[in-house]
Design a protein that fits this description.
about 30% strand; about 190 residues; 1 helix; 5-stranded parallel β-sheet; mainly beta; 4-stranded parallel β-sheet
Length: about 190
């Protein structure tokens, strides 16, 4: 994520691995960016709410520096500013990467409200008001997804099933999935 006043909400991200990117990444900004340059605008005033992150080797990464093609000397020195984490559920795994990995400290107001974290490298997150370290009692369905129990205050975090292969990408790919007869397969890599 780059830019101002963005909302990252209602995502279900499961099983990303260390070789890839984090489930949610907030980039630092390029102090010399301007319209048309194509670099990274400062990331500030971000709301991360009602997300469910499960079994990812990297969950939330703060202060990433990017690389802009053709511009090797981009100075990404403007830190992430003002982040609110609200009603997210993060279930870690055996990865040693902290559940919230901070490469460069954010500035401004960092606020937590109603978040539940469980397992993984919690890096003293239990000492932060607005984060509870507890089992959210999710259960694994036959489809491999996790679900909130009926009546859970966070049940609304998952508002629909994952996208199907035919829901994403250009029409020629969708047509190919239909030809192969796998249109009902969720877009989840095993």
């Amino acid at each position: 994520m780059i830019g101002e006043d963005n909302i990252i909400s209602g995502n279900y991200i499961q099983g990303t691995r260390a070789k890839g990117k984090a489930a949610i990444t907030l980039y630092q900004g390029d102090a010399d960016n301007y319209p048309g340059k194509g670099s990274y605008y400062p990331t500030k005033n971000i709301l991360i709410a009602n997300n469910t992150l499960i079994d990812n080797d990297k969950n939330i990464l703060i202060g990433q520096k990017g690389q802009v093609a053709g511009m090797p000397d981009v100075e990404m020195t403007i830190p992430v500013e003002n982040v609110t984490y609200k009603e997210n559920v993060v279930i870690g795994n055996s990865s040693t990467v902290p559940v919230i990995q901070v490469l460069n400290e954010p500035i401004g107001n960092i606020h937590y409200e109603g978040n539940i974290f469980f397992k993984g490298n919690l890096n003293s997150l239990g000492d932060i008001p607005g984060i509870s370290i507890e089992d959210p009692q999710l259960y694994k369905g036959a489809d491999g997804m996790y679900y909130y129990p009926t009546g859970s205050a966070l049940e609304g975090n998952i508002i629909r099933s994952p996208l199907k292969r035919t829901d994403v990408g250009p029409s020629w790919i969708k047509d190919r999935w239909l030809e192969l007869g796998i249109e009902d397969t969720p877009y989840i890599k095993p």
